Amino acid sequence: MTTEDEALDWVIRLRDPGFEDWEAFGAWMAGDPARAEAYHALAIAEEDLGEMLPAETAPVVVPSIADAARLRHGRRTTRRLWLGGALAASVAALVGSNMLDHRGGDISVATAPGERRSVALADGSRMILNGNTVVRLDSADPRMATLDRGEVLFEIRHDEKNPFRVSVGGDQLLDVGTAFNVVHEHGVTAVQVSEGAVMYNPDSDAVRLDAGKSLRVAGDQAVVGSVVPGDVAAWRDGRLISDGQTMAEVAAHLSRYTGERVSATAEVANRPFRGVLSLGTREDIAALGPILGVAVHRTPKGWELAAR
Amino acid sequence: MAESGLEAILMQNRGALLRFIAAHGGGEEAEDILQELWMRVRANPPTKPIAQPLSYLYRAANNLMLDRYRSAKQAAKRDSDWSDSAVTEPGRSDEPSTERGLIAREQLDIAQSELDALGERTAQIFRRHRIDGVAQRDIAQELGISISTVESDLRRAYRAMIDLRRRFDEV
């Protein structure tokens, strides 16, 4: 490799937010004054790329909305096509912007219904937000997140001395080396652990949830269950897996994921559902009736799951 | 991290930081530059918590060295512009701002199409890295491709974009 090529590699490597190899970079430059010169010239030109690039990538096109729009324009998509789209879209959806909204000291990260977003944290941990979700980060404590609403997959870089904590609906989750999914909606909190373990309310209940365990907290009742680790956060690839969740929760999940407004009537709201849903378009929501065992009505406000 | 905490890290790693500055071509001025670095960090304390304070200081030192290089280059350019302008009309260098805006938009369009010409995947990886500031490792994971693919795509894209930038600057 020429000095120029080597310098370009350093320019690229140094752009990584987590770059730490400063000693090696310094040693490389120290080897020959021409190297620092080549690096400087390239790095300056690289900095100036900003002038000819957009400030942020194009907004994420959420699969459900894109497909819904296409349907409105009279073009029908086959289910198979959509499934391909869903996989591509779940990748595209993660390719969102990482914009953080600073508000009053606390940092708030939010997604719109149907939007998904991946947020890298300073310590190398990552949060992947499903739609209609609000998470607050504490600028004074980088190892703390508060889930106000919605669903997040936490992929936490474990640090025994400084464990990551998630505050949700008044409960605490403490990571023990972890990837876990948390949903909080209508007063119900659901946790599913795919890797490592999570401690639920370490200071009071101290319930340990290992990989493959789930927890459902509604009111003052907390129930531990099981989950297939590979099914945790299946929403990331367009699957909604329900293991006895109520129709109201399924409706909330559908709304969050697709961006369509879906609700359950009082009559069916508490009915449990077990099964796998794969969906994204309006057409798909209408077609869910037989799978869910309910009637699906189009209403002026959105979709309604009702008794048959 | 509190300011005093950063200062302690700076003091502990003084030697390493001085060596880094010297390698950058800071040579005999390294001590002064380190002082300048500390003034800078104090004047603009980090707004977010810092996971890796030493890395933060290295980054700040690197930026400082790039700024010094940039101003040295600009000073040299001013000198040569000055001698050029002695034989051309005075005041010509100030283009109307609308024209400059137009040029910026044109450059944006050209950059977009050059980037797209590299292929969809390469363009996407580059945008993700350069515009969204996502780490190579995370891009590889997101797109389900190997890190070496990300590396080689980035090399091609950065090369093309930097070459384009240089062409724009020559005009």
UniProtKB/TrEMBL annotation, chain A:
Coiled coil, from the record: none
FecR protein domain segment(s): 109-198
GO molecular function terms listed in the Swiss-Prot or TrEMBL record: sigma factor antagonist activity
A Pfam family of this chain: FecR
InterPro entries reported in the protein's UniProt record: FecR, FecR_N, Ferrdict_sens_TM
Limits of the FecR N-terminal domain: 5-42
Name by which UniProt lists this protein: DUF4880 domain-containing protein
Taxonomy of the source species: Bacteria, Pseudomonadati, Pseudomonadota, Alphaproteobacteria, Sphingomonadales
Automatic annotation (TrEMBL), chain B:
Compositionally biased tracts (Basic and acidic residues): 91-101
Region (Disordered): 74-101
UniProt keyword Endoplasmic reticulum, yes or no: no
All residue ranges annotated as the RNA polymerase sigma-70 region domain in the record: 12-73
Domain RNA polymerase sigma factor 70 region 4 type stretches: 112-161
Listed GO MF terms: DNA binding; sigma factor activity
Alphabetical UniProt keywords: Sigma factor, Transcription, Transcription regulation
Entry's Gene Ontology BP terms: DNA-templated transcription initiation
InterPro entries for the chain: RNA_pol_sigma-70-like, RNA_pol_sigma-70_dom, RNA_pol_sigma70_r2, RNA_pol_sigma70_r4_t2, RNA_pol_sigma_r2, RNA_pol_sigma_r3/r4-like, WH-like_DNA-bd_sf
Keyword Transcription: yes
Family: Belongs to the sigma-70 factor family. ECF subfamily.
Protein name as it appears in the record: RNA polymerase sigma factor
Species this chain originates from: Sphingomonas montanisoli
